[in-house]
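Box S1 | Example of a co-folding query
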Amino acid sequence: MKFRNFKMVDYVVYGSGCFDQLGEILAPRRVGDAPMIFFVDEYFQDKQAFLSRIPLQGKDKIVVIDVTDEPKTKTVDKIRDELQAEFGTVSGIIGIGGGSVMDMAKAVSLMMTNPGSSADYQGWDLVKFAGVYKVGIPTISGTGAEVSRTCVLTGPTRKLGMNSDFTPFDQIVLDPSLTSTVEANQRFYTAMDCFIHCVESLQGTYLNAFSKSYGEKAQELCEEIFLRKTTWDADADEKLMMASYAGGMSIAYSQVGVAHAVSYGLAYLLGTKHGIGNCIVFDKLEEFYPEGVVKFKEMVKKHNIEIPQGITRGLTDEQFDTMINVSLGMAPLWENALGKDWKEIMTRERLRKLYERL
Ligand code: NAD
Ligand code: ZN
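Box S1 (continued) | Returned holo structure for nicotinamide-adenine-dinucleotide
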């Protein structure tokens, strides 16, 4: 048995309003006059009160990140090329936003020092050099991207992260007050990414006491917030931020499962976003995760959330095959979910039937 020795985030600051400490956190990380580059989710581009709190100095720059689509390798490469052309080198990249912006920040940080295209590094442990200093600041909770060792990118041939020990942030700033403006449906979809991480980790064959302790806590927090609380408040934002962190820590030492494996196929073919895609799939997974799906449906009902139906209707055989290929390519996810004999359990025919129900 070989145990994984995993790299974690170096520094964590937590608390409502802690964003205002960013200037002093960055100060010792500034290298000469090389700027800090702030990647900001497009939601904030016209929020002057928030933008004025970003501790800009000298040549520092704000780059607004378009989150219409999930991060693409070609966008990562383009932003890297532009930053290198304008500044040569930078002191650091700070990603302020959801999983999309945090992943973009991780990827561009790595590509500032690794040659070629980010598409060359989609996979496991392909990144050769540490990137520039990078900070993650979530403004919506659930993905666990703030703690993970990957940044998920859609490339020319696949959707796959740059998984490496160089990928985790050097610093994260967990300020739950930044999440208070997220719209209710979006908040639910991204939060359910966390809930699903917990179910898939806790029901998986890779489970161990490390993952279990984080996964149980995160799942309990999700249930408290979405099943027992009657109104959304600052306390809910705080708990959801910690659920996201703990859910991420849980899968760091285990793996996700069926919902993620199937939703990757949807994302690749149809561009379905991670949070909502996981919800669309998880809604139909009662045979794999009976208790989790019952709780999920209760939460959907209580919060009046619409889960899209019929999204694969009318697809061609070829399109179903593409999704099936992408999905079955995620071997560790299937092995975690179904065990070593997963290929006999999840046949192409069975997966096709599952896709047809979505
Ligand atoms: P997102 O980053 O795409 O953001 C969703 C929406 O919320 C956007 O419209 C954004 O503008 C808005 N938003 C963000 N903060 C807001 C705020 N404070 N107020 C109002 N609106 C706000 O969504 P997400 O679910 O956080 O992230 C999904 C992405 O994360 C996908 O690209 C997925 O691949 C990636 N992901 C990465 C990991 C990882 O470990 N690296 C894990 C899971 C998912
Ligand atoms: Zn996820």
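The first strand starts at residue 11 and ends at 14. The chain has two domains: 11-179, 184-357.
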